[in-house]
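Q: Could you fold this chain for me?
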Amino acid sequence: MSRKFELGDVLVHSNVLPLIRNKALTHMLERHKNCDWGVISPGEKANNNDAFKNNGRIVSCYFYYGELCMIMTEGDRRLTLVVLLADYNRVHESFLELKRSQKQD
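A: Sure. Below is the predicted structure, expressed as structure tokens.
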């Protein structure tokens, strides 16, 4: 039996656009929603497996031509963010604001 989860709305940071053009992003999203967590530590994999079962936040990382791409799906499975690790801190605050606004809907 394969494990899968919903991604919800997928928000992609503009610096990830080259991945879209090369179809790599589609492949990464498929891996993420099929519980292939990519290049994360064994402890983070265990956290993701627990999050999968208990509706927690899931984080996967994949390398693409020397860039580390992070894919994060929130516990309610309504929203997935795709960002390069180098942009994460800048984008994270905007992501949290969007998440707060969705809860008000």
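A (continued): The helical segments are 17-21, 24-33, 42-54, 88-104.
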